[in-house]
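Records of this kind hold a single protein each, on a pair of labelled lines. With that in mind, the following record should read easily:
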Amino acid sequence: MIHAYIGLGSNLDTPMAQLDRAIDTLQKHDDVKNLRVSSIYGSKPVGPQDQPDYVNAVASFQTDLPPLALLDLLQSIEQAQRRVRERHWGPRTLDLDLLLYGQETIQLPRLTVPHPYMLERGFVIKPLSDLAPDTLLNNGNTVIEQLQQLDTSDLVIIKEE
């Protein structure tokens, strides 16, 4: 079994309900064990600012799914919740990103792990620190050390873990 971490985000169509449905779907999936979810945070959008604020969280779980099968599962959950992709870094009903897949480094046309932008995003690193503060990242920092290098002043806890 591999320990996976995913980022969850939404800013359209009742964002908290979007995250709750995605978490519920993951929890009921046969290939997802020991699901844990961080606190849920509100944050300003990355990219275009003419969109609603986001809600974000990180989930961790054990799985025996290979990386692309896990990506397929995440994308099927997004599609089931009518994922909207209007523009790059634009608003979305649900975004599920595979952040970490064990300690593996993956470079495939459809998937890059660790997630290529996670180290610079407080809305990812802060909830990841709720679950795995001492995890070593690919840049040599622990999650908590990486968090100390980021501006997280726009993050607001919406729901405690």
The mean pLDDT is 93. The helical segments are 15-28, 67-80, 122-131, 143-147.
